[in-house]
Write a structure and sequence with these properties.
Strand order of the largest sheet: 1-2-3
CATH architecture of the largest domain: 3-Layer(aba) Sandwich
Low-confidence stretches: none
Helix content: 55-70%
Distance between the termini: 76 Å
Shape: elongated
Largest sheet: 3 strands, mixed
Number of domains: 2
Radius of gyration: 24 Å
Mean pLDDT: 80
CATH superfamily of the largest domain: P-loop containing nucleotide triphosphate hydrolases
CATH topology of the largest domain: Rossmann fold
Length: 196
């Protein structure tokens, strides 16, 4: 049977989310049970610990951001990339706006389930409001919640005096959107119409 000291250490490491220490103490418990002659219990504990470690490592890989190199070549002047850490909880939102943003997050997180029913998740949002109303922060929070890179389209590099050149640059951006999963922000998008 586990000692009181081991149980306290196990619970403390769990509460403090120190997984390495938690697994270490758990392995000590398994070794203690083996020394007491409880071989089956010791093997069961080791198997559970190994399974938990594997699941934890897989979950950590899923939670980590998508590896991202800075846009290169022609895209370097059209996109800037970042990994925001904002969350919806960091924002004060009207209930209706928060509900809609959470729905988008739920659809993105459950896209595999939606696609099995031939329903694509919501992929485009139009955020409208005066300056300072939280449009950019909302996109940063969406990217942070989904642990995806935020690509901001740099309009000064996109718009040129030649319409064909602007269209070619837009095509590059939309090709990048198809290739790399992320949140793409066309900030001040209304400026494109005014420039063309």
């Amino acid at each position: 049977m586990a000692t009181a000291k081991q149980l306290r250490a196990l619970l403390k490491s769990y509460a403090e989310e120190e997984s390495d220490r938690f697994y270490s103490v758990a392995m000590q418990l398994a070794a203690h049970e083996a020394r007491l002659g409880h071989g089956k219990l010791a093997r069961d504990l080791r198997a559970l610990i190994d399974e938990a470690r594997a699941r934890g490592a897989a979950a950590k890989r899923r939670r980590s951001p998508v590896p991202l190199a800075a846009p290169r070549g022609d895209l370097a002047g059209l996109l800037s990339a970042s990994y925001p850490d904002e969350r919806l909880e960091d924002m004060i939102l009207p209930k209706e706006v928060e509900r809609k943003l959470r729905r988008v997050l739920r659809e993105q997180r459950q896209q595999a389930k939606l696609l099995t029913h031939a329903l694509p998740p919501r992929a485009k949002l139009l955020l409208v409001g005066p300056p300072g109303s939280g449009k950019t922060m909302s996109t940063r929070a969406l990217a942070g919640e989904l642990r995806l890179p935020l690509f901001t389209i740099l309009l000064d590099g996109l718009i040129t005096k030649f319409m064909g050149e602007t269209a070619a640059k837009l095509r590059l951006v939309f090709d990048a959107i198809r290739e790399t999963r992320g949140v793409y922000l066309f900030d001040e998008f209304d400026a494109i119409g005014g420039q063309l």
